Amino acid sequence: MDPGEAQDTPLVQQDEGHMGWKQAGITVFTFAAPSAVMAVPFAIANAGYAGGIALCLIITGASVAGANMLLEIKLLYPHCKTFGDLGLQVLGRPAQIWGNVIQLGNFCLFMPCALRFCALSLLSIGTIGPLGSCVDYYVWVIAAICLLTTQVRSFDNAQGFTVISFCCVIGMVVTMLIGAFQYEHDPKIPAQFFGNPEADPGLRLIRLASGFTIGAWAFIPAFLTVELSTCMRTPAEFKKSLLLAGSLNVGLFVVVGTIVVARWGYNVGEVIAITAGVGAWVPGTTINTAFNVFQLGGNFVSYMLDSVPLSRFCQKSWAPNFKDTWTLPDICRYLGYSLPTFLSALFLSTFTPSINTLLDFVTALTTPWVTQIYPAVLYWKVLHRRAAENIECGLEEPIKRSEKITVALVLTVGCVSFCACSLKAIGYLAFDELRPPFQIGCDGWLIWKWSRA
């Protein structure tokens, strides 16, 4: 389809999906929230009360604007159903490859993180007999259940699960706040209004960048914009979904982040449940058990949502004529199409020395590109194409100043976010004080292990 034909295409797709804008907004929010809520206090602590909220507002605003740009392009090309499809229409085959690499690459590399988070939650609830305390064994147990989620197939079918995930996020928030008021933190280091109290300038900068990183991957609407709007009754209403999800994300940072940091101070853990010196996170306590039950449910749904577009992409690539029925043969076939991505996630979850390090680099190399940089580049091209077409038709309608400013701001936030996320990923390996422990294997088949003395 050439650009002229695209303009004549109806802006509202017919009979594509049945999802409403509220459900779509909840899905966008819950896509990353179960993992993000654990780290929100850490983001506020390292950027400061005002600094952390400012970063959240800036990144969330740029993410909403970037996703809205994708939506505008999607409405111009309603036949596009994937991230890469938009790139193909706007900038050709190279942009399609670029879009698929950064979007699907993120999905593929986040799946082992979600598996690990689920396993850690299961272990924190209580050890299971012969499995002992080896996290890898819990990864294998939870993986068998996660494999079945590939049969969800579309976001339309996932609506009930996203409601469950949203309830789990609320449960995590409530238990975290109850724990903050019931338990003290010893020792507690007061947080600052801006920045953090680290004495070493390099360490202080890396800590500040970690607050930026968490803000970047806590809210990632562009990852789902094209696919999710395709499932909606009225795709144009996805703008409301973005505003709803963005508001929930800001509320999460403002309420949870500031209250928990005010109670427990700057020195909270990167994941709240590993905060040392807080009795709430001792195994066996009611708060710890409840929090990890909710965390397990939320991250399980996150894994499922992650696998939906990835599995569908594999099926369309390898079997474009797949009938997509619920007969036993088709269920087995679809399971086969999704199996390679599942096995790669299981392999990485087991043999990656540090999931935190993997998540840091996946965030830096994909998240700012998908949420801000790629949408800004595509939208800028669309604006120029529209202006050129108007001139050919005898109309003088240059690109508006507000459009130029919006594109520039979104692109700038994306570039700064990429630099900050990269700084955090590299800095957490360079500084001994920040480097996480590394381990491959468990007792009896330990392959490699490193930790600070």
From TrEMBL:
Location of the Amino acid transporter transmembrane domain: 20-385
Annotated GO MF terms: L-amino acid transmembrane transporter activity
InterPro entries documented for this protein: AA_transpt_TM
GO CC list: membrane
Pfam family, one: Aa_trans
Domain of life: Eukaryota
Record-annotated membrane-spanning stretches: 24-44, 50-71, 137-155, 162-183, 203-230, 242-266, 272-294, 407-431
Keywords of the record: Membrane, Transmembrane, Transmembrane helix
Predominant cellular place of this UniProt entry's protein: membrane
UniProt-annotated location(s): Membrane
Name by which UniProt lists this protein: Mtr protein
Species in which this protein is naturally found: Symbiodinium pilosum
